[in-house]
Amino acid sequence: MKHTSDLVIVGAGLSGLMVAWLCLDKNPDLTVTLIESSDKIAGDHTWSFNMNDILPDLQDWVKPVIAHQWDQYDVKFPKRERTLDITYCTGNSDTLRACVQPHIESGRLKVRLNTLAEKLSAYEVILEDGEKLTAACVLDARGFKANDDVFLGYQKFVGHVIKTKIPHGVERPIIMDATVDQLDGYRFVYCLPFSETELLVEDTYYADGPELEADSVESRISDYIGDRLKVDTYDVIRRETGVLPITLAVDPDYGTDVSGEKTEAVKLGMTGGYYHAVTGYSLPEAVKSANVVYDMIEQNKPDFSAALLHEMAYHRVDHYHEESFLRMLNRMMFRAAKPEKRYKVLERFYGLPEDLVERFYRNRISKADKLKVLIGKPPVSVSKAISNVSESAFIKRERAT
Ligand SMILES: Cc1cc2nc3c(=O)[nH]c(=O)nc-3n(C[C@H](O)[C@H](O)[C@H](O)COP(=O)(O)OP(=O)(O)OC[C@H]3O[C@@H](n4cnc5c(N)ncnc54)[C@H](O)[C@@H]3O)c2cc1C
User: Fold this and answer.
1) Most CB atoms closer than 10 Å: which of 176, 206, 235, 319?
2) Could you count the other beta carbons within 10 Å of the beta carbon of residue 97?
3) 126 & 52 share domain
4) Residues whose beta carbon lies within 6 Å of some atom of ligand 1
5) Predicted pLDDT at 376
């Protein structure tokens, strides 16, 4: 039977587009269909990441998505200020759209907008109107969905991009300014200077619940811009709000079955749990998953379906294990530290060597790194810390309450 295309990807957001872009760039014979429920691909986003979080072989390839890049960034806490020599980048929806545009024009990437996929399986997608699409492999990139097997805290924020009349004076990103009043958990302000007169200012909270009082947060952003940045004449040219999952624990049985025949669509991006447990950011993981998909197709063409389905099942299990230390740290921050003292966990962390900080965000920390993160006087209750070490005990307790 002739398929609709080699890959059908449901969701033309970050992870779906990364897979389409990489596979089509590197494999001139492949065809891809993207199904997107909204009226455009890539949405209206900015995505930040450390350059070193990207697989070394793909750092050059990912460059066209970068709209802004800085060689350093700052962090500020009540008792620590520091500049880190870590390359920080931001891409956005426009740059991502431009990356896939040549493939749309060549006809190898077909995009169906305003189209809702209702049922997905490994080889088939059924749309809202009953139309059936088939592929050698279906990829599910529909974005984050909460479920009972994943236990969460939240990183929530409101961001304003402002245009100032005179230079705002912020020279490089401030990834965390936690010298602000601590409210609703760990609060910090995040600033990205896109130009001398354009600045993103985001008021962020690591909180137990996802609710955001947008009006109060917006007025705190204005206060920060006026009081701290001393900028009083500006226009807000863009607003964004986000609630990102911060994973405290995952049931080990959830999505970790690698045996038997695979009948479900391959999950990508946030819906597959492919984000950094501590930051909720997913761009580096989206590149990594795209590379696994591309490799499997390349190594097993023309009949790559079974190999791809199995490899992605192992990829998911690897990700689950790679993140276990990060989930434990999240349990320390969310359950062992008092909400108003959570900033101390980060203040202490940013006193560690720069290469360790860099490996932490890349999720490539060694055993020695883990010891360095944990030793010393913890800014948390020791008894609560001990009771949150075991993930299975944590899950049992959470389910009982
Ligand atoms: C405001 C905000 C800022 C963020 N900033 C960063 C950042 O700086 N760095 C970073 O790495 N991460 C960031 N993230 C986190 C994460 O990287 C993004 O959410 C990212 O877009 C997730 O990619 P995804 O492909 O999983 O989902 P999405 O990009 O959300 O894409 C999912 C797509 O699927 C479509 N869809 C859903 N259901 C269906 C259906 N049934 N049929 C058809 N289409 C469907 C949606 O319309 C959407 O286009 C941010 C998130 C938010 C919300």
Assistant:
1) 206
2) 17
3) yes
4) 10-16, 35-38, 43, 45-49, 116-117, 141-143, 240, 242, 244, 269-271, 280-283
5) 74
Q: What is the largest CA-CA distance in the chain?
A: 66
Cα(190)–Cα(144) distance, rounded to whole angstroms?
A: 23
Instruction: Determine the atom of ligand 1 nearest the C-alpha atom of 11.
Output: 34
Instruction: For the beta carbon of residue 275, count every other beta carbon within 10 angstroms.
Output: 24
CA of 100 to the centre of ligand 1 (A): 17
pTM score above 0.70: yes
Residue 32 structural domain: 5-72+88-148+251-322
The answer to whether residue 82 sits within a structural domain is no
The confidence score (pLDDT) of residue 380 equals 79
In this prediction, residue 2 carries a pLDDT of 84
Q: Are strands 174-177 and 46-50 parallel, antiparallel or unpaired?
A: unpaired
Confirm whether 80 is domain-assigned: no
Q: 218: buried, middle or exposed (CB in 10 Å: 19+, 13-18, 0-12)?
A: middle
User: Tell me, what's the pLDDT at 133?
Assistant: 97
* pLDDT bucket at 49, cuts 50 / 70 / 90: very high
Q: Which CATH number goes with the domain that contains 260?
A: 3.50.50.60
Give residue-wise pLDDT tens across range 379-388: 778 888 899 9
> Are 394 and 151 spatial neighbours (Cβ–Cβ below 8 Å)?
yes
Q: Do residues 131 and 260 share a domain?
A: yes
Q: Which ligand 1 atom sits nearest the alpha carbon of residue 284?
A: 11
Q: What is the DSSP letter of 265?
A: P
Dump the DSSP string for 176-240.
EETTSPP-SSEEEEEEEEEETTEEEEEEEEEESS----HHHHHHHHHHIIIIIS---SEEEEEEE
Task: Flag whether pLDDT at 378 surpasses 80.
Answer: no
106-115 pLDDT per residue, tens: 999 999 999 9
